[in-house]
């Protein structure tokens, strides 16, 4: 199986001055990028996420440091350790996600398919399970 959070490898241009990675919406990620946000100053014992989205698609990167990404499609769970700024995890709609085990100074960047919309969030796990089950029979 391709996994619930497909890993995306971005290009890297390396020369003696360092590494350069770039990302183009619709090319390296499968949507037009409408929003970028990032998490930083995250306490090492913090837990982020704890929700799913009805429509939003995202790609999550560890630009610096590392963290654990746990994903759940309502039937199975997987976990990924993100630690390479060239490699993102694509998270489709209707995937419950949790992020924790942030290293000191970690920076998590997220590319998102839509602007912020609180009504797109599913923050109740049982409601998520019902929505995921409905989506499977559709
Ligand atoms: P949330 O998405 O719950 O954070 P995480 O999943 O990383 O733990 O968002 C936390 C708060 O920030 C919440 O009050 C909504 C707000 N927020 C915005 O205003 N705009 C945004 O683009 C995002 C991602 C969050």
Automatic annotation (TrEMBL):
Annotated InterPro entries: QdtA_cupin_dom, RmlC-like_jellyroll, RmlC_Cupin_sf
Occurrences of domain Sugar 3,4-ketoisomerase QdtA cupin (ranges): 6-131
The protein's name: Sugar 3,4-ketoisomerase QdtA cupin domain-containing protein
UniProt cross-references to Gene3D superfamilies, sorted A to Z: Jelly Rolls
């Amino acid at each position: 199986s391709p996994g619930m959070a497909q890993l995306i490898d971005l290009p890297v241009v390396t020369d003696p001055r360092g590494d350069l990675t770039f990302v183009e919406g619709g090319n390296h990620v499968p949507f037009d990028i409408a929003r970028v946000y990032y998490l930083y100053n995250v306490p090492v014992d913090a837990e982020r996420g704890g929700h799913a989205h009805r429509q939003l698609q995202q790609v999550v990167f560890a630009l610096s440091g590392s963290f654990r990404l746990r994903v759940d499609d309502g039937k199975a769970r997987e976990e990924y350790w993100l630690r390479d700024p060239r490699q993102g995890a694509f998270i489709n709609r209707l995937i419950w996600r949790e992020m924790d085990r942030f290293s000191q100074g970690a920076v998590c960047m997220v590319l998102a398919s839509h602007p912020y919309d609180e009504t797109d969030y599913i923050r109740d796990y049982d409601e998520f399970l019902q929505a995921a089950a409905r989506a499977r029979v559709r």
